[in-house]
Design brief:
The protein has helices at about 10-20, 25-30, 55, 75-85, 95-110, 125-135, 150-160, 165-175, 180-185, 190-200, 220-230, 290-305, 360-370, and strands at about 1-5, 30-35, 50, 60-65, 85-90, 115, 140-145, 205, 230-240, 250-255, 270-275, 280-285, 315-320, 325-335, 345-350, 350-355, 355-360, 375-380. It has about 375 residues and is of the alpha/beta class. Helix 5 (about 95-110) runs parallel beside helix 10 (about 190-200). The protein is globular, with a radius of gyration of 21 Å. The structure holds NADP nicotinamide-adenine-dinucleotide phosphate (NAP). The site of NADP nicotinamide-adenine-dinucleotide phosphate has 23 residues, from helix 1.
């Protein structure tokens, strides 16, 4: 099966590293025949081309693997590949979270598959396992540490008592965080993965802007000190709960109990959990990023296509996000504690621990506080 690879960076080069050297007979049949690169200096392999038409117009190429990242031109290239009857595998959560409805429809119209295992949870077979659970029963809820960069920063802060900025700098030095870390630390990356998990787990599509998304750029050592005193540690989670009329979805730091399985998932590891009636809680832990683990997921998708496995190109249904049922206590550190006075159970200086209130209510209060330095987290009971 001939494959056209779009992008030969961290993930794309991992894909060729696996397909070019794997001893397994079936994998040897996955032939990356052309590779789209951007710059002449990258024409290091005879398969490389600067012209995407060499891939999209090649009738022998059955599958396009998109590992370029970004919205455009990735979206256009993927749409064109599907439109011309090629299967697609993508690792690009940002592009797929924005355009999955259109791309599922195009895949359906053209009788091909679009698979996106690597876009969510990196090397962890998360989408595949959600699909397996769904063969038997509905998935009721999920939660996960979906971002290795922020998990690395939070783990280091918990371990060393140091501040956010120095740990972000260290993550950048080690190549875990990009030079522009906004998507990671402001949790857009987790928002895309949470939305895509809702697509797979609940068959539900939501407006991305309707997912309350709180990142970690304002987290401070003092937040960890408070957590430690209470036997808690901080993790950035994406979570969701299915519903008929609306779904609950949110992205927020959570103070988890030291006995919680997620409390012990550290460094750049990811952990994701689904909950369903007979299987109960199922947790998957592994490398959520990195060249080879992510490429492993891309190659698994390629193998599934090679083996003719059905990928459900089911049009997801649109539902609103409603977090009224998420009733928790919240930790709020703010310059404007007076805004939270009515819902406060405890106040210590600029830190408020709320009574048990809904996430919808806390969202409203946080918006009205207009405090750009505010840090908010759920306190697990
Ligand atoms: N890295 C990970 O661990 C990981 C894990 C899971 C998912 N992902 C996702 O996988 C995708 C790729 O990530 P990555 O880390 O491999 O990024 P990367 O290292 O930046 O690789 C992307 C490659 O695509 C090239 N490219 C971009 N636009 C292009 C165009 N128009 N024509 C030809 N080549 C183009 C880039 O070239 P230039 O550098 O010249 O722009 C770069 O070489 C992203 O969507 C990312 O979110 C990554």
């Amino acid at each position: 099966m001939k494959i056209g690879l779009l992008g030969h960076g961290v993930v794309g080069s991992g894909v060729t590293a696996i397909t070019d050297s794997c001893a397994v007979k079936k994998v040897r049949r996955l032939e990356v025949s052309k590779i789209l690169v951007k710059d002449e200096s990258e024409l290091t392999d005879p398969r490389c081309t600067l012209n995407v038409e060499d891939i999209l117009e090649d009738p022998d190429i059955e599958v396009v693997a998109e590992c370029m990242g970004g919205l455009e031109p990735a979206h256009t290239f993927v749409a064109r590949a599907l439109g011309s009857g090629k299967h697609v595998v993508t690792s690009n959560k940002k592009m797929f979270a924005h355009y999955c409805e259109e791309l599922f429809a195009l895949a359906e119209e053209n009788g091909v598959s679009i698979r996106y295992e690597a876009s969510c949870g990196g090397g962890i077979p998360w989408m595949t396992n959600l699909a397996r659970v769904k063969r038997l029963e509905a998935i009721e809820s999920f939660r996960g540490i979906f971002n290795g960069t922020t998990n690395y920063i939070l783990s280091r802060m918990a371990e060393t008592g140091s501040e956010f900025a120095e740990n972000l700098a260290e993550a950048q030095r080690l190549g875990y965080a990009e030079q522009d870390p906004t998507d990671d630390i402001d949790a857009h990356d987790v928002k895309y993965k949470t939305a895509l998990t809702a697509v797979k787990a609940f068959n539900t599509l939501v407006d991305l802007d309707s997912i309350p998304t709180y990142g970690i750029s304002n987290v401070a050592a003092e937040d960890f000190s408070w957590g430690k005193e209470h036997g808690l540690t901080l993790k950035l989670l994406g979570a969701g709960k299915a519903g008929e009329e609306a779904v609950s979805l949110y992205v927020m730091p959570v103070f988890v109990k030291s006995g919680d399985i997620f409390a012990n998932v550290n460094a750049n590891y990811n952990a994701v959990q689904s909950d369903s009636r007979t299987l109960g809680e199922a947790v998957y832990i592994g490398q959520g990023a990195g060249s080879l683990p992510t490429a492993h997921a891309v190659v698994q998708d390629l193998l599934d296509i090679y083996q003719g496995q059905d990928s459900e190109n089911i049009a997801p249904k649109h539902l609103p996000v409603n977090n009224d049922s998420v009733k928790e206590q919240f930790y709020i550190r703010t310059q404007r504690p007076e805004v939270f006075a009515e819902v406060a159970a405890e106040t210590a200086g600029n830190v408020i621990i709320t009574k048990e209130i809904s996430l919808s209510e806390v969202n409203r209060l946080i918006s009205s506080a207009e405090d750009r330095s505010l840090f908010a987290a759920i306190v697990s009971r």
